[in-house]
Design goal:
Elements: H1 2-12, H2 14-26, H3 32-42, H4 52-89, H5 97-118, H6 129-134, H7 139-164, H8 170-204
Helix pairs in contact: 1-2, 1-3, 2-3, 2-4, 3-7, 4-5, 4-7, 5-7
Amino acid sequence: MIEWMLNLMNQMGYLGIFLLMILENLFPPIPSELIMPSAGFAASPEQGQLNIFGVVLAGALGSVVGTLPLYYIGKVFGEERATAWADRYGKWLTVSGEDIRKADDWFDQHGTKAVLFGRMVPGIRSLLSLPAGVSGMPLPKFLLYSFLGSGIWAGLLAAAGYFLGENYDRVEQYVGPASKIILGALALWFVWWIIKRRRERAQGS
């Protein structure tokens, strides 16, 4: 995969980085922890093929564009449909329409911070686009905070590849497992939350 990404960047330059970061948001097996450090390495003095600022900009823009499909899916679905779905089909997950409304209210208050900082968290970077769309976050605000968060994330990864040089692949060795740990922790929390809700309902009945 690394060779394929490097070849794409060598052939297409910044456009290749842009396209890869779009794909990274849509297909998690292509992680930014591989794309941006390798792009940073391509901009290093050892390679000199790209400019580090152009690399970061292309990565940030691609990442933002890649968030739009999930954002629009959430926006089309909307709070009303999500609430109706939860009331009708959410019983086995112990999710109710009221839960959806509370989550939407929370996102209305803290959504900007969630999008900004969430774009820097491996494993959930893309997933935050869905609740942003469901809550009806205005598109300009969503794009702004997505760009800021994505720019910081892309900058950190590209800088790591730039300074590590040929050892840029070490970034993925450290960050990759972190994303799996975060996803695993979220899955465990979700299972615990379902069990807790079912016990509460059983005790209340």
